[in-house]
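As a warm-up, study this chain.
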Amino acid sequence: MKLKSLLLIMAVACSLGMQAQKYVGGDISLLPKYEEHGAKFLDKDGKTITGGMLAYFKQQGWNAMRVRLFVDPSKASAAHKGQGVCQDLDFVKKLGKQIKDAGLALMLDFHYSDTWTDPGKHATPSSWTSSDPETLATTLYEYTKSCLNEMIAAGATPDFVQPGNEITYGMLWPTGHCYPDGGNYGSGTFANFAKYLQAGIRAIREVCPQAKIVIQTELSKSQNVTNFYKTLKNYTNDYDVIGLSYYPYYHGTLTTLDNVLTTLEKNYPDKKIQIVETGYFHAWYPSDATYPISNFPNWPATDAGQLQFTKDLIAKLAAHQSVDGLYWWFPEANEYGLDWETKRVTDDWYNAGLFDNKTGKAMQSLYELKTFLGGSAGITSTPTIQHLTPSVYTLDGRRVSSFEAAPRGVYVVGKKKVVKH
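Now compare it with the structure written out below.
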C-alpha cells in the first residue's frame, strides 16, 4: 500500500510538473499606454472589462507575459515611436512588477538597441560608441547586469530572459552582423556576435540564475533556423529555450513550422522550444504579406478565421513535446475609445491583435489560447514550479542546497550540466 501511495504521489507530481512548465500569454509591451490613454476594452459579449487587463488575461487562463526593453527609445525615429517603441528601463520595471504582482511569469526581451531589432536591423545603441568587439561585449555585459539588478530591486525578477531579439543575423551591427551559417557579413563576424551573446548570457546567469535563457530566431527561411543553432553550438550551448517567431503571412504554412520543430527536437533534445511571437489578422489582411491570404483558405481575415488559425496552431504544437510556450504578439492592440488626434497609441491600427479596433470587443482567440496548456488554468503553477525545482548535484554526486548558494563550478541541475560563473 505504501509503495502504491508513493507511486501515485510521484505520478501526480510529474503531471503537475508537466503542466507547470507550459506557458501561454502575449507580448503586452504597450498595454500601459492603452490603459493610460483610456482605451475601452470589452469582453466578447461587449461588456466592459473591469479590474485591469492583466487580471482579465489571467482569468482567461493566461499565465505568462513578454515585455521588450530598449536601451534608449527616446533616440528612436519618429516612425518607430509611432509603432510603439517607448519601453525604457523605468517603463519595463513598472510593467514587470505589475506582471509579477498579478502572479504571471515574465519574459524579458532585451533588444540591445534604441529601437526595433529583427532580421533586417540591429543598430548598436547610440551611446555605445566603440567599434571594438571586446569593449562592446563588456558594455553589453554591464548593461545587462545593471538592468537585471534593477528589475530585481523593483520586484520584477524575470523568469525568462532573451539576450537579443530575433538574432538570426546577429546583433550590434555592423560588428556583430553575420549569416546564420557562420559566414561574415561585411565587417561583421559570427565570432563577434557570439562574443556579445555570451556576454549577455554570463550576466543573466550571474544575476538571475533561476531564469531560463531564450535564444530567439524567426522562420523567414527555415534553413536559416537550423543553420543558426548548429553554428551557435560551436560557440556556446549555454541556453535553455529555443525561441521562434512564427507569422504565417511572413513564414508560410504550418507545415513549414512543423518541419522546423521536428528538426529542432531531433537535433536539440535538451532544449525546450517556445513560440515567443505569433499572430494572425482578424481584419485587413496586409497587401504586402510575403504569403497571400489565398495560401490560407481556412483562415480568412475575420474573427472566425483568426480563431481557426489559433486552433490549428495549437493542435500542431501539441504534437511536439518540446514546445512549452506560446505568446501572441501585441494582443492588447485596441484603439477603440481613443481620440485619434490626441490619444492614439500607435500611428496605424494593428488588426492582428486580440481586440477589435472598431468596437473594443475581444476576439475569440483570446479565449482559445489557454487550450495550449491542455486544459490547465495556468499560473497557479508558479508556486508549483518553485516547489518542483530540480535537485542540484556536484559532478561527484553530492547534493547541494540550492544553485544560488553553491560556489562557482559545474553542477548537474535536472539532468543537465550547468556552469555557475
